[in-house]
Amino acid sequence: MTPPLRMAAGALALLLSHSASALDCDTAAGEKVFQTKCSACHALDSDRVGPHLSGVVGRPMASVKGYAYSASLASASDSWSLERLETWLTSPARMFPDTTMAFGGLRKAEERKAVLCYLQNRH
Question: How far is CA 37 from CA 31, 92, 103, in A?
Fold first, then answer.
């Protein structure tokens, strides 16, 4: 298999695995957790106290125009993968100690999984 074909096959496999994981999760449970734990500061399509979260999965960190991020988050060069969002939702201050997000995190793994399911299905 040629390198370009190998890369295309790998990208397709990644896309299919992402799609499969998005299909087998409970978006309704995620929406409920989002509404009770996140919506006081975040919305999907508009900035509030925190930046909007529509399309956050895969988006570069600190990339919402006009939002004032903490210094360490603003200088981050990563994107919000599901793994990074899981770490963030567990304890934002552990990931970025100078964060302005006044939220201790979601302690229950099932709540984090549900919120991630909801967010990855909202573009």
Answer: 10, 14, 9
Beta carbons of 79 and 70 less than 8 angstroms apart: no
Question: To the nearest whole percent, how much of the chain has pLDDT over 70?
Answer: 80
> Which residues pair with residue 79 across a beta bridge?
60
- Which tokens go with 23? 């299909």
Spatial CA neighbour of 72 closest among 42, 92, 53, 49: 92
Has residue 17 got a pLDDT over 60?
A: no
- Which pair of tokens denotes residue 56? 């956050």
For residue 52, give the DSSP letter.
-
pLDDT for 31-54, tens place per residue?
A: 999 999 999 999 999 999 999 999
pTM: 0.78
Place of tokens 């890369």: 7
Residue 8 has pLDDT above 70, yes or no: no
117 burial type by CB count under 10 A (0-12 exposed, 13-18 middle, 19+ buried): buried
Torsion of Cα atoms, 57 then 64 then 122 then 109, to 10°:
50
